[in-house]
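Section 3.1: Structural characterization of target chains.
Under the original work plan, the team committed to producing a structural model for every single-chain target entering the pipeline before any wet-lab resources were allocated. The record below documents one such target. The sequence was received from the expression subgroup and is listed exactly as submitted; it comprises 203 residues.
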Amino acid sequence: LNYSAVSASDMRVVVGQGNLSQEEIEEMVFDIEDMKKHPRWNNMEDGRFSNDLALIKIRRKGDGSGIQFSDNVGPACLPSLETEQYGGLQCEVSGWGKINAKAYADCLRTASVPLIERQECHNMYKKKYWNVNKGMICAGYSNGGTDACDADSGGPLTCQTNGKHVLHGVVSWGIGCGEVNQPGVYTNVKEYLPWIEETIFSF
C-alpha cells in the first residue's frame, strides 16, 4: 500500500465480517476520522520496508457509538515492553490474502505459524540481499509451506499470553509465499510502543 497516495476519505474499516460475499449480522462499517503513518516509513536509511506501520482513528456513528464487541468481534491487546518473544512461540496470522497463485480468499482465514528469531531470519534473507532490522519480526517455517501472502498485508500476527490475544506483528513483506527459507516478515509492534502511545494521544 502506498500510504502517500491514500487519504482517510478513501478508506473504510469493516469489523465483524468473515465472508466477503455476504453481509453478516455483526458487520459494522466505519469511516476514518484520521490516519497517521510512521514518519520514517520505508526510510532508506533504516532499510527497505522499514517502519511499516500506520494508525487510524475511526469516526463514531451518528449516535456516538463505536465498535461493539461480541464473541466474534474483539480487540487484540498491545504487547508490553516485557512481553516475551522467542523462536518457536506459536502465533496466528489472519487475512483475506491469496490462498494459491491465482485465487484470493473469500472468507477470513487464519494460519498457525511459529516466531523465528530475528537473527536467524536475517541470515535467511541476507543471501537475497534483504535486511531484517530490529523493527521487524519473522514467523513461519524454514522449510516453507504455511505463510501470509499477497493482500494479507496490514493483517495481525497474534500470540496468546495468559489467555489473551496479543498483537506481536503486522504483516509487512516477504519473497513469494511459503517459500523455503523465506518466512513472512512482520512489523514488530513491541518495538513501536512509544510511537503508538504518542500517536494515540495526538489524535
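Helices lie at 118-126, 193-202.
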